[in-house]
């Protein structure tokens, strides 16, 4: 007779193990949600909002309190002044109520019709403040000798405000205007093409030069460690330092590169490497290759040194040329790491902002999607449009990742 037992993982012990596993994973899940998922969701949220840079702070009333006249005796005239304004120039603030505590010894002689005083509790109902509203409310007051002897400071009792206003970020209104601006712009497809050119050739170039450097340094020789360290310099050096060096080196008027080209007779006049189309795009792509090929070199070299050397000795005995050994023995062993590096470098280069911004500022046909995000969000103060471009960047990378894992990685056995 077959005994019935609960399926694996459904008993008390299995449930306890599941709760323990989720408990151990919860810090990681929460950290990922806070660091990755929540910012991503906020970008999607903002991309459907008509939000400008000035809309990040909700409209609010601002009040300043002062005693004008500086009375020295009880008979000196004085005025209690409240300066109130709406911080927004295009949105109202509703149901504004001001509350304050008057100092002892100060009496309002003629109160504003919108205000009341009970004991020393001062209250004003301003109602709705229109966009750009500004007002100076002054009321004559009388002070006593006790007030003067106490040397009070009106700042000790700051007025408080109660109000309600609409926040563009949290309101229920959504729009597709941000995406319409992005795709209707005549330069979007040019920017997308520039991004793809910069990403594809920058990625492939970094892999090819990294592979070539790894082949050169895969042999043991004197000074090998020093040379490997020098190869890593472009990657570990601060980007602002190397970008400034390149801009100075290729300056059309004082750069050493132009002076050398003219002395060698290669160029008859100075070349503006970072200011002419399409040369500027080619130059920043070369900079991308030069700066990031050491990362590929490091990973490829590590993989090459783990390959068994016996098959190279056998191929050498069979008369295989160095190229045949590389093509038929080394390259198949390197396809896995090359495909992973291609994925990572493609995503990182597609998202790259600082290199282009430091070299050209996005001018001369070098504006990529990430530079466009910055210009829309901060140069044009259109946060919604900048978020919409960021969503386009995310969508492009998501589609590329799906294509990579569905087709390329399957062929490589990843």
Question: How does this structure look, described?
Answer:
There is one protein chain. The two termini are 46 Å apart. Strands 1-2-7-4 form a four-stranded antiparallel β-sheet. It has a four-stranded antiparallel β-sheet with strand order 5-6-3-8, with no helix packed on it. Strand 5 and strand 6 form a beta hairpin. Helix 3 packs across helix 14, helix 4 runs antiparallel to helix 11 and helix 11 runs antiparallel to helix 14. It is elongated, with a radius of gyration of 34 Å. With 414 residues, it is α+β, with helices and mostly antiparallel strands. The chain contains 14 helices and eight strands.
Q: Characterize the main sheet.
A: 4 strands, antiparallel
Shape: elongated
Unreliable sequence segments: none
Lateral strand order in the biggest sheet: 1-2-7-4
In percent, how helical is the residue content?
40-55%
Number of separate helices: 14
- Rounded mean pLDDT score: 87
């Amino acid at each position: 007779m077959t005994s019935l037992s609960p399926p694996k993982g459904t008993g008390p012990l299995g449930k306890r193990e599941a709760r323990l596993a989720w408990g151990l994973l919860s810090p990681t899940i929460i950290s990922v949600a806070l660091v990755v998922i929540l910012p991503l969701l906020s970008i999607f949220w903002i991309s459907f909002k008509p939000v400008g840079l000035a809309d990040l702070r909700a409209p609010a009333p601002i009040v300043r309190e002062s005693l004008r006249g500086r009375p020295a005796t009880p008979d000196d005239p004085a005025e209690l002044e409240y300066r109130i304004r709406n911080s927004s120039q295009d949105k109202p603030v509703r149901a504004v109520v001001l509350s304050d505590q008057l100092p002892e010894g100060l009496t309002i002689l003629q109160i504003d019709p919108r205000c009341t005083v009970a004991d020393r509790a001062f209250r004003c109902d301003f109602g709705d403040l229109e966009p750009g509203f500004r007002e100076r409310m002054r009321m004559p007051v009388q002070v006593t000798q006790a007030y003067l002897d106490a040397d009070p400071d009106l700042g000790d009792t700051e007025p408080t405000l109660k109000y309600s206003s609409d926040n563009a970020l949290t309101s229920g209104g959504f729009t597709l205007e941000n995406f319409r601006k992005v795709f209707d712009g005549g330069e979007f497809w040019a920017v997308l093409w520039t991004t793809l050119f910069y990403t594809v050739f920058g990625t492939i170039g970094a892999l090819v030069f990294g592979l070539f450097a790894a082949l050169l340094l895969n042999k043991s020789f004197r000074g090998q460690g020093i040379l490997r360290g020098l190869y890593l310099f472009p990657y570990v050096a601060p980007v602002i330092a190397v970008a400034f060096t390149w801009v100075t080196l290729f300056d059309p008027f004082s750069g050493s590169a132009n002076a050398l080209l003219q002395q060698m007779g290669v160029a008859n006049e100075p070349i503006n490497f970072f200011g002419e189309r399409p040369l500027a795009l080619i130059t920043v792509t070369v900079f991308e290759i030069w700066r990031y090929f050491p990362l590929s070199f490091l990973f490829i070299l590590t993989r090459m040194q783990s390959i068994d050397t016996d098959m190279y000795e056998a191929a050498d005995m069979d008369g295989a040329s160095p190229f045949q050994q590389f093509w038929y023995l080394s390259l198949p062993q390197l396809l896995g790491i090359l495909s992973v590096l291609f994925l990572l470098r493609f995503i990182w280069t597609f998202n790259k902002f600082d290199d282009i911004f430091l070299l050209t500022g996005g001018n001369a046909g070098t504006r990529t999607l990430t530079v466009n995000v910055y210009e829309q969000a901060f140069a044009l103060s259109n946060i919604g449009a900048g978020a919409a471009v960021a969503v386009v960047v995310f969508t492009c990378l998501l589609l590329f990742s799906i294509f990579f894992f569905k087709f390329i990685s399957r062929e490589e056995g990843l």
